[in-house]
């Protein structure tokens, strides 16, 4: 009976979630990536689906599998591909949670052949990627909501609050890497939520499944308020 009740919390709402790393190609066999596992985004997508939401999950390269068969997964590789998929899907969505670890820089050119080793030093020219979350914030309509993450190692709350404002977000989830056990490859996270009214909620170190539950409870509150 409580499962049926839960299914009603987000019934019928279309929600977009991003997860995982992006891979930026250097040449046909190499890329620049990061250690994001995708666990947080997949856990959020599953929890939202269990609350009745219609979930589209845009994922970078990740070994994760959705536990909820209703989650529609779109696989992408690079930041540019993730941007395109997000722009395609956000207009139709009530809310987007951007939990992907998007590369900040990408090679200016992709070598068409494998780069051969030559000198002792090799420089690869990089250019900034488009900030997907900021772009969605610029496209956001009055009926839509936007949630971002912030990964910080210093001045955490100040930097997270700046991102919340700069990217036109309704909520930012600060990921604290400082606490032992929290982070990219682990199964736990320590988060602080800051909403657009600058209301702050601090959470204890928890499993990513439990963190997903906290985040999705907040999503239901934002959507139903
Ligand atoms: N993000 C994004 N597109 C990018 C870079 C980041 O959409 N090209 C999103 C992330 O998915 C996250 C939020 O922006 O939801 C914050 O990412 P983070 O790396 O913490 O901040 P940045 O704005 O990239 O700034 P910096 O890395 O310099 O702290
Ligand atoms: Ca970044």
TrEMBL record:
Record flagged with keyword Metal-binding: yes
Catalytic activity: N-[(R)-4-phosphopantothenoyl]-L-cysteine + H(+) = (R)-4'-phosphopantetheine + CO2; (R)-4'-phosphopantothenate + L-cysteine + CTP = N-[(R)-4-phosphopantothenoyl]-L-cysteine + CMP + diphosphate + H(+)
Keyword annotations from UniProtKB, A to Z: Decarboxylase, Flavoprotein, FMN, Ligase, Lyase, Magnesium, Metal-binding, Multifunctional enzyme
Positions with a binding annotation for CTP: 104, 114, 149, 163, 167
Pathway where it operates: Cofactor biosynthesis; coenzyme A biosynthesis; CoA from (R)-pantothenate: step 2/5; Cofactor biosynthesis; coenzyme A biosynthesis; CoA from (R)-pantothenate: step 3/5
Cofactor: record remark: Binds 1 FMN per subunit.
Keyword Magnesium set for record: yes
Highest rank taxon of the organism: Bacteria
Annotated stretches, region: Phosphopantothenate--cysteine ligase: 15-225
Cofactor names: Mg(2+); FMN
Stretches assigned to the DNA/pantothenate metabolism flavoprotein C-terminal domain: 10-221
EC number annotated for this UniProt entry: 4.1.1.36, 6.3.2.5
GO MF term (any one): ligase activity
Function: Catalyzes two steps in the biosynthesis of coenzyme A. In the first step cysteine is conjugated to 4'-phosphopantothenate to form 4-phosphopantothenoylcysteine, in the latter compound is decarboxylated to form 4'-phosphopantotheine. Catalyzes two sequential steps in the biosynthesis of coenzyme A. In the first step cysteine is conjugated to 4'-phosphopantothenate to form 4-phosphopantothenoylcysteine. In the second step the latter compound is decarboxylated to form 4'-phosphopantotheine.
Record-stated family: In the N-terminal section; belongs to the HFCD (homo-oligomeric flavin containing Cys decarboxylase) superfamily.
Name of the protein in question: Coenzyme A biosynthesis bifunctional protein CoaBC
Species of provenance: Mucilaginibacter gynuensis
Gene: coaBC
Full-sequence range covered: 176 to 400 of 400
């Amino acid at each position: 009976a409580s499962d049926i009740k839960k299914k009603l919390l987000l019934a019928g709402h279309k929600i977009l979630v991003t997860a995982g790393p992006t891979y930026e190609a250097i040449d046909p066999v190499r890329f620049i990536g990061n250690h994001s596992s995708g666990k947080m985004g997949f856990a959020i997508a599953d929890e939202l689906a269990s609350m009745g939401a219609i979930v589209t999950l845009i994922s970078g390269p990740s070994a994760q599998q959705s536990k909820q068969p209703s989650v529609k997964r779109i696989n992408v590789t690079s930041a540019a591909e993730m941007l395109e998929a997000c722009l395609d899907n956000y207009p139709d969505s009530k809310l987007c949670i951007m939990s992907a670890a998007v590369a900040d820089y990408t090679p200016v050119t992709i070598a068409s052949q494998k780069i051969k080793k030559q000198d002792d030093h090799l420089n690869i020219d990089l250019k900034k990627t488009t900030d997907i979350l900021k772009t969605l914030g610029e496209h956001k309509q009055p009926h839509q909501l936007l949630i971002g993450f912030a990964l910080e190692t210093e001045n955490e709350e100040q930097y997270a609050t700046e991102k919340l404002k700069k990217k036109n977000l309704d909520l930012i989830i600060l990921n604290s890497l400082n606490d032992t056990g929290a982070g990219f490859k682990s199964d736990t996270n320590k988060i602080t939520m800051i909403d657009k009214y600058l209301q702050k909620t601090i959470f204890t170190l928890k499993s990513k499944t439990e963190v997903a539950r906290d985040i999705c409870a907040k999503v239901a509150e934002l959507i139903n308020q």
